[in-house]
Design brief:
Blueprint (H helix, E strand, L loop, with lengths): L7 H5 L6 E4 L1 H4 L23 H11 L7 E4 L6 H9 L2 E6 L3 H9 L27 H4 L2 H16 L6 H14 L14 H11 L3 H25 L7 E5 L12 E6 L9 H4 L1 H6 L4 H8 L16 H11 L4 H21 L3 E9 L3 E2 L2 E2 L2 H11 L3 E9 L23 E8 L1
Parallel strand pairs: 1-9, 2-3, 2-5, 3-4, 5-6
Antiparallel strand pairs: 6-10, 7-8, 9-10
Length: about 425
């Protein structure tokens, strides 16, 4: 069978009955009512790891949960932390985006909380100014006058233990009262956003800010209450955010590596969250240093990808005569190879990697199969690949890919690749 013909049906026909079509939403519907239940969906995040997949893997591959560790090196919004806490499993999370730590603290909050705890002072006399040269580009001066006050209150007055919960509604207000299009994850100054700002400036924007904050704070309380009502366990959780997972080494043994790595051409997470990161107090130099580590922009590591499929598809990508695409292709797989080489010895039982076969200019690249071959060459055994149809999730809602400038093509399925010792 030609590698170019590896469609969904051809996956199912592969030998040894190791490929199975599933619907994770149906499989786990008895315990997970929606992708936004509990504290999932507290804040917008692109290409989220759906909780159904996470709970499925934990339930199936960590049956003896006590003292077990699940490890997500590309943790994003912290889906694994929420599901691990509800299931009673210890978790270790890494992510390049420093905002991951805040999201995890907010979404796994187990202390008592009330609306009064989330109150902020819109008249606070202090002023917080983000270290961002483009601040005036994203906010009109009228909005900035108010935002600087409330963010000064956040940084100077709000207790540390409650800051993650206060940050969620405050970030939503800050994003809405800007020239960014808050309906998409990418930081984008759209025609809609410009019209929105003009309409807000013509009305009582200060009152609307306060009303929006109060509404979003109440939503946080409701979601945290929902999470707490589902019996979260007291587990050990370690989060290392703002780190380069590609170059890290595990400092402890884990039982299950469970992750959804960045998509081949859609990894602009730091750039998408610049507005939030600046208001949270991170510097321009630091954010720029993280942006350079995102896969489309980093230098490919000197690492061999142990997969014949990698070389077959590389030849096809090279034939497109598009150097940027080839550079991204090489950097993506060499980066994941470097990561897997660094950590696989400390993963005691299984790896479960959720990734879709993405398209590059008409070439459907079977990422999971390339990773399978690489791991097999490291001594791992292919246990199963579950093939799930994408129903409602979307990546960045853009007609063109931001890294390449080429048309953005959707991925119809995502595959849970399960490898065992």
């Amino acid at each position: 069978m030609s590698t170019m013909e590896r469609t969904l049906d051809n996956y199912i026909k592969l030998p040894q009955n190791k490929y199975e079509k599933v619907s994770f939403r149906k499989l786990m519907g008895y315990v997970i009512p929606s992708t936004t239940y509990a504290t999932h969906g507290l804040y917008m995040y692109p290409a989220k790891f759906i909780p159904h997949v996470v709970r499925f893997a934990i339930e199936r591959y960590l049956p003896e949960k006590r003292d077990s560790w699940v490890f997500d090196p590309f943790a994003g919004s912290g889906t694994v932390a929420i599901e691990a806490t509800l299931a009673g499993v210890n978790y270790l999370l890494w992510d390049l985006n420093p905002i991951t730590s805040l999201f995890v603290k907010a979404s796994t909050y187990q202390e008592e909380v009330s609306v009064d705890d989330l109150e902020i002072d819109f008249e606070y006399p202090g002023e917080f100014v983000p270290k961002w040269r483009n601040l005036d580009y994203w906010h009109p001066p009228e909005f900035l006058e108010v935002l600087k006050r409330v963010w000064a209150y956040y940084h100077e007055v709000v207790p540390d233990n409650i800051k993650p919960l206060v940050a969620i509604p405050l970030l939503k207000v800050t994003r809405y009262f800007s020239y960014s299009d808050e309906k998409i994850a990418k930081l984008y100054k759209s025609k809609y956003a410009k019209k929105k700002v003009a309409e807000l400036l013509n009305g009582d924007y200060r009152k609307k800010m306060e009303e929006m904050y109060a509404k979003e704070a109440m939503r946080v309380i409701e979601k945290v209450t929902d999470f707490q009502s589902r019996g979260p366990k007291k587990v050990e959780g370690i989060v290392r955010a703002g780190v380069d997972s590609i170059e890290m080494n595990l400092e402890r043994e884990v039982h299950l590596l469970l992750t959804s790595p960045p998509y081949l051409q859609a990894q602009e997470y730091i750039r998408s969250f610049k507005l939030e990161l600046f208001w949270l107090g991170y510097s321009e130099e630091y954010i720029r240093s993280l942006s350079r580590l995102e896969i489309p922009y980093r230098k490919p590591p000197d690492e061999e990808v142990l997969s014949n499929l990698y070389w077959e598809y590389r030849e096809s990508v090279e034939g497109l005569n598009h150097p940027k695409l080839l550079q991204i292709y090489d950097c993506y797989f060499k980066s994941l190879a470097r990561f897997l080489n660094n950590v696989h010895d400390d993963v005691r039982e299984r790896m479960a990697i959720f990734v879709g076969p993405v398209k590059i200019r008409g070439i459907r690249v079977p990422i999971d199969e390339i990773l399978r071959e690489h791991l097999e060459n490291l001594g791992w055994t292919h246990e199963k690949t579950y093939i799930d149809e994408i129903v409602a999730r979307r990546l960045f809602k853009s007609r063109t890919n931001p890294a390449t400038g080429l048309p953005d093509e959707r991925t119809p399925t995502e595959h849970l690749l399960v490898m065992r010792r």
